[in-house]
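are you around this afternoon, could really use another pair of eyes. what follows is a protein written twice so to speak, once as letters and once as structure tokens for the fold. i want to understand how the tokens follow from the sequence so walk me through it. anything you notice is useful, everything is just below.
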Amino acid sequence: MATPELRHFERAAREIAAHGDNDTLPFDLDVRFTGWAAAGLASIAFGFYSELKSGPAKENKSRIEGMRVYSERLIAPSGPAGFRVVTKIHPFWNVYLNGLAIAIAEALEPLRDEHAHSYRFLPTSEESLFDPNRSWRAFKEATVQHAANAGADAVVVQTDISSFYEHVSHHYLENFINDLEGDSEVMAAQVNALLGHFSAKRSFGLPVGGQAARILAELFLNYVDNALSAAGVNWHRYVDDYVLIAANTGDAYRALGKLSQLLLDYGLSLNKSKTVFLSSKHYQDYVQAQLGGDDNETIKLRSIDLKFDPYSDKPHVDYESLKETVESLQVRQLLNRELEKALPDNFLVAQIGRTMRLHSPDVALEIATTLLTPSNLHAFRSSFSTIMRGIAHLRSDSNFAAIHAGIDSLLDAVPVNSGHLLEVDTNRLHYLRCLRFSVTQQRRKYIQALFERTRSEVLQRACIECWRSWKDRVACNHLRNRWNQLAPDSQRVFWLTTFAFGDEGDAARRHFKHALPQAWALGVEVPLDEKKDATKLKTHPRGAEPRFATLYQDWASEMKDAD
């Protein structure tokens, strides 16, 4: 049964702190805040959920629909020539939606078919929501083994759902959540209302990038999975990628028709351009090549797990072992090989970007130079965010101080030589994350111009984060004079920025402090005045909860000296 508890919201907050609020966007200050304030945010979330649950049933949807639930839709690259929409969500509402989703995942996991490989929920793990052993690579290896066991005459169909996340129906999702029992009706109405906010009031689409979307997607496709198994189809699935294995071409065609019909029943369709029939041997050879084939260098690079845990029992040994493996690879040769291809291997390039910090400084700078050369960066545009993440790692690490000036020079050339890539929202956010480590007049002009012209609150906050890191007094004073024009989330970043400016910052905080409870109110807090109704507050069922504005102020005071 799906019944949200305080622990679900706490786990949601910890997960966001550990892995980010959105896998397409850089970690920002709100991710840090969520980790620090995990208990307080979970308390507010569970209190609000309990209040709605105990109130009139219609309020589970109507009250959330009437609130200001901040989110912003951003454009992110999808392949070398495509784009998709990802969603940045306010930290509280992200914890709230993810808490509901975790309760759903807990109830859903025992009902899932073993052939659904993606995002298998781990109910008790503190490290990850999902089983890391059930990876895309493991999915591919399982299909190869199944195809081999099916015999030489077997036929394999490889296909995927067309624009799956964008077309998920909120109505169907609400019905599917309802089937989970427990508090399912309460949760279903709330999830539907939140998805409406994140989808610009449309009745379809999931907020791409977060864990909640992954869980809801698995819930949606679980119905298709179960129907496929009941129909006797041999299948494997990873998110929206299906592999069907049949005894011959006729059976394969019938299996594909069955999958198409099941998806059509829920308003979905297969991607015709990505649907292919392959012989068992052809499929096995294809996947082996996809996974690295007989190239030991490629296999090692693909299989490296870069989620190094500094809190493991032997962190130094683990790190050194990983570093030795990477240093033994001929990464520069692999990179040059990808440059020769018309369509570089995105995952391989991403792995190269991730491993830069494991090389010596001179080799790291050489790889960075190759990656950021204008023609190469355009060729690797699908991996822009991962490349910038790798550059940010180098730029933040004192062990690479000798090459920081060289990296800064490469970064400053990006708007001049590769400016078209910075027209994409998520690319620009990752680029700004790299600029915050040092300031130049060129960067000041770039950030100021961007702040003035962009309509994106997420980008404006990223600009303020740069000014905070640079301790830019002029920009801080400019923001103070525009306080009433700033969005609440930009006000929060400015508030944190003021701690870098001594008495001037203290004065700014004193001046605006009285406005914060109202300016930063979520709309879910206990409707009591703490001073006038102190007695009532002590006995109110939600009286012990912190306020969002108070949580943020306390965090900012503690974080004031942190980079």
In short: The two ends are 43 Å apart (CA to CA).
